[in-house]
Amino acid sequence: MTAPVVIFAIGNPSRGDDAIGPECYGRLEKMLKNEILAGDVELIEDFQLQIEHALDLQGRALALFIDAGVDTPAPYVFERIFPSTAVAHTSHALSPQAVLQVYRQTEGAEPPPAFVLCVRGERFELGEALSGEASGRVEAAVPLVVELCRQPGLNAWEQASGEVINS
């Protein structure tokens, strides 16, 4: 059985604050298992989004993409996203909006409602560790994701979307 909610945690743990996605993944994995929500939510961790990730949207009610952002207001932004052909991508990586568009094109149907949680990062150099600032922002963001997982409905997610928390 396919879990109704899929969460993509994107980032490279070897590139400083780009580790925000994987850091969220690790914390969420523990929390979801402790709350017995693992059957309702599938977590997927990867360095970057690929065309194949569109297949992970099949049969889902909701999708969430977690990633680090450079110019994102601190600590994070949570917003709804839609398929887009205007999003630039390379042959190696796609934006979340482009993954939704690939789903639309390959499936001939609309993708599930999708959201992005973009957590502000500061340093992205190869070999850097997660910064203290980014770690604190992950601490602020993870409770939101846990609450969303407890209320896996479009209305609840839309009410929470657009939030920008300043710190």
Structure explained in plain terms:
The chain has 167 residues and is an alpha/beta fold. The chain has a single domain, classed as Rossmann fold (3-Layer(aba) Sandwich), CATH 3.40.50.1450. The protein is built from four helices and six strands, in the order E-H-E-E-E-H-E-H-H-E. It has a six-stranded mixed sheet with strand order 2-1-3-5-4-6. Helix 1 links the parallel strand 1 (5-10) and strand 2 (41-46). Helix 1 (20-34) crosses helix 3 (132-150). The longest helix is centred in the C-terminal third of the chain and has 19 residues, at 132-150. The protein starts with a strand and ends with a strand. Mean pLDDT is 88; it is low at 163-167.
Short note summarizing the structure:
The protein has 167 residues and is of the alpha/beta class.
Integer tally of domains = 1
* Main beta sheet strand tally, sense and closure: 6 strands, mixed
Q: Mean pLDDT, as a whole number? A: 88
Rg: 15 Å
SSE series: EHEEEHEHHE
Give the count of helical stretches.
Answer: 4
**Uncertain residue ranges:** 163-167
| CATH hierarchy: architecture | 3-Layer(aba) Sandwich
The overall strand count is: 6
The percent range for helix content is 25-40%
CATH class: Alpha Beta
Structural class: alpha/beta
Q: Which helices and strands occur, and which strands form pairs?
A:
Layout: E1 5-10, H1 20-34, E2 41-46, E3 62-69, E4 75-81, H2 96-107, E5 114-120, H3 132-150, H4 154-160, E6 163-166
Parallel strand pairs: 1-2, 1-3, 3-5
Antiparallel strand pairs: 4-5, 4-6
Helix pairs in contact: 1-3
